[in-house]
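Let us work through a complete example step by step.
Step 1: write down the sequence.
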Amino acid sequence: MKKQNLVAVVAGLLVAFSLPPWGWWPLAYVGIALFATCKPNSKRARFIFGTLFALAWLAPGMGWMWFLTAPGYVIAALLFSALHGIAAMITGAVTDQHKHRSIVGPLAHTLAEALRFSFPFGGVPLATLAISQAASPIATIVRIGGPLLLTYIVLQIGFLLARLRDTEMPKRSVHAALIAVVVATLPLAGSIAPHGNDIGRSLNVAAVQGGGPQGTLAINTNSRDVVNRHLDATEIITGESAATDNQLDLVIWPENVIDVSSFSSSIERTEVAAQAARLNAPFLVGITEDLDNKYFTNAQVVVNTDGSLGDRYDKVRRVPFGEFVPMRGLLEAVGAPVDRIPRDAKAGNDTAILRAADTTIAVVISWEVFFSGRANEGIEQGATLLVNPTNGSSYTGTILQTQQIASSRLRALETGRWLVQVSPTGFSAFISPSGQVFDRTGVSEQRVITREVQLRSGRTIYSYLGDLPFILIMITSLIALVITGRRTTPA
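Step 2: predict the structure and record it as tokens.
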């Protein structure tokens, strides 16, 4: 028993190291294959085995959460790991004598992932198997089935690799050939799937990273210092500093670099408007504003070249224990430390688009980029470009920031759009519709990156379908296999 649990931990760590910032994506298959080779012989042992596997995977991969809330990090890691414990328990109970174990296991664990993508508190879709594969050849399959299909495929390949150990020698070569065909087919399927098309127009975009220290909190930071860094960085932009000789079309500042009571009447609006007039380009600016002593807003606002304010998008998906405290009253009553987040962000309810530079832009603010549906909402409204203004300055290290770049790569692939990610302290980058990363900045550096990006139309299969059809297919398949397994298992 102890040996099996050690195997679970080693397997989970292998999956963890497939994730950014380590990024050795083939290790995900090795870790899952190792996990699938063990077959604990009781429900309790299976639950413990699956939980330990997931805990060794998720605890390192979600280490960024410690800097938001240490108790929340522990609870989340244990809760999400327990989902995989339940999946392992179901898989083992159904497949003790069942030839379809290598199918039931991937289905059960993919559904466990689907659940944690949305529950509790809106979900925490980080440290995922899909994120681990953002740089792999099979990542393009998200154009068809999004992160859940990619998750299932990673699990399925791992479980099939584990079967090589159990397969009789004459059948191993056939089985291995089947795996090779599946793996080779996936990139081809993703590459030929619909992925949008250029509309014959481009924008010359500048993304401004003001720089500064990481590991800081808003309550301990002079918000004016952040504004000054971004003004200083913007001042270096001239016509010659653009990616081409063309006039700049759009300038993007990161999430909540301006923290004021009212942006419309602030000196910061005047300063941004002056820069917009100087460069003759509209700005997308991240702001936070006071609502009252309980709430604040987090929004991205268009500042036009004449100083007027254009469209505004208020963030819908908020960071639990980062921008709002779930069950605040209960936590305060038991003495839990919630003073780091004295007020909650008010969730927006607008469609995730902004109109600027004579085009429609899809916008996902920070945390929202981890949710594929948020990015797709703007594409459904005809957006030709996707932007992700974010703020990773609260976190020490680069676990969250590198996983965000990986998630942005997946969103670009899923939507068939160029994506611009911009952060005050890194990472900022341009990401092509094929998932390629350009001009990625370093942590804490002050830098302006510029690039001419093609505006695009059209939608991918996943953009049309979303997650629900795949979830329903997986649930139906799992139920059918469970029933079949019970009928074929000897008494």
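Step 3: interpret the result. Residues 105 and 112 are 11 Å apart (CA to CA).
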